[in-house]
Write a structure and sequence with these properties.
This protein has one domain: Histidine kinase-like ATPase, C-terminal domain (Heat Shock Protein 90), CATH 3.30.565. Helix content is 25%, strand content 28%. By secondary structure, it is an alpha+beta fold. A 4-stranded antiparallel β-sheet has the order 1-2-4-3, covered by helices on one side. The chain is globular. Helix 1 runs antiparallel to helix 2. Pfam families: HATPase_c_2.
Length: 103
């Protein structure tokens, strides 16, 4: 679970750097029974478009695999695109450790 969340936050944050207009980026996590929800919020882009779909790029492409990776390791994910903020979020099933705490 931890590696899945690390991959998701890395991909979401990279997309913030590449596609947003700059400014404050907020990363959040929320633990609920059986699920961990992660989100990254940024100021959005100057020309917000429809939410991109996870797609497989050409095998020789240098980028474009991030949302496919997030989709492969998370149970759910999505993008909420507004006029002033963009939020990428995902959910990963939580696995309790031996003491009952989330790992």
């Amino acid at each position: 679970m931890r590696a899945d969340l690390e991959l998701a936050v890395s991909e979401f944050f990279s997309n913030c750097v590449r596609h947003s207009r700059g400014g404050r980026v907020v990363v959040g996590v929320q633990c609920a029974p059986g699920t961990v929800r992660l989100w990254v919020t940024d100021p959005g882009s100057d020309a917000p478009a429809a939410a991109p779909a996870a797609r497989l790029p050409h095998p020789l492409a240098l980028d474009g695999r991030g949302l496919c990776l997030v989709g492969a390791v998370c149970s759910r994910w999505g993008l909420d695109i507004g006029t002033t903020l963009t939020r990428a979020w995902c959910e990963v099933p939580a696995a309790p450790g031996p003491e009952g705490r989330l790992r």
